[in-house]
Amino acid sequence: MARSPFIAGNWKMNTTKASAVDLANAVAAGVPAGVETGIAVPFVYIDAVAQAVAHSKLVVGAQDVYFEKAGAFTGEVSVDMLKDVGAHFVLTGHSERRHVLNEPGELVSKKAHAAYAGGLTVVHCVGEKLEERDANTTFAVVEKQLNELSTKMDNPNRVVIAYEPVWAIGTGRNATDAQAQEVHAFVRQTVAKIWNKDFADKVRIQYGGSMKPENAKGLLGQPDVDGGLIGGAALKVDSFLAIVNAAV
Ligand code: PEP
After folding, report:
1. For residue 68, what are the contacts with CB-CB under 8 A and spacing of at least 6?
2. Which residue in 6, 25, 184, 244 is a FRET match for 208, CA 20 to 30 A apart?
3. Are 234 and 207 in contact (CB under 8 A)?
4. First to last CA, the chain
5. Average pLDDT over residues 88-96
């Protein structure tokens, strides 16, 4: 089953308005054909960045969203607000939301469902902590996180699963090609059980965790790795585009 690769940069809480627009313009100018490429931008810069790259192939997204439509939710941002300023996709369940901001599985699942129902593409992150890998519970953790998501999101073009081992995020220590492939194959198998085989064959599964130009080709060459979610290396145009080009 040929799945088209999707590479997304996660800028986290970085850039200024000016540097965000410059970086987005530089990335947009170099996006090759055949690789869906996106950037998840801080909320406050989505509008400016989306306008700057509106006529390019680069897709703009957000790093989080709230599940309610509107109302007294101080500080939160809705799906409609994201769409209003030009976001097309959103990350949900990123490990920093789960483990630094302490968001439980039920909350990240509600966010994913609201985003999907509102028409955004959902990039839903799963992955184990180091102590969970060491305790041989990687599969159990990932299975639980996928089960929490349930089956209502049925368009495989608007659902992406990002497998991001927490111990590999921002640490410089990536999963090996074999470690990534092993969990990606498990994710696909689990998605087939929870959704169905056709959905599982079509859904893209990104790898995230210290992906960089030097390791991108190997990771992206694995049969069940359909792209990458890139943190640190997405903040520099050369390293991000080198990764995108490794997916061609
Ligand atoms: C991430 O933030 O999703 C990520 C994978 O970060 P890094 O590439 O810096 O490890």
Report:
1. 76, 78, 114
2. 25
3. no
4. 16
5. 98
**Residue 151 — very low, low, confident or very high, per pLDDT cuts 50/70/90?**
confident
Q: What are phi and psi of 121, to 5 degrees?
A: -80, 135
Concerning whether 94 is annotated as a catalytic residue, the answer is: yes
**Beta carbons of 208 and 217 less than 8 angstroms apart:** no
Question: Which residue from 96, 211, 212, 214 has its CB within 8 A of the most atoms of ligand 1, so it is best to mutate?
Answer: 211
Helix-, strand-, coil-residue percentages of the chain, each rounded to 5: 45, 15, 40
| DSSP designation for 233 | G
Q: Considering the chain, what percentage of its residues have pLDDT values greater than 70?
A: 100
pLDDT of res. 2 = 81
164: Cβ below 6 Å to ligand 1?
A: yes
Q: Is the CB of 228 under 6 A from ligand 1?
A: no
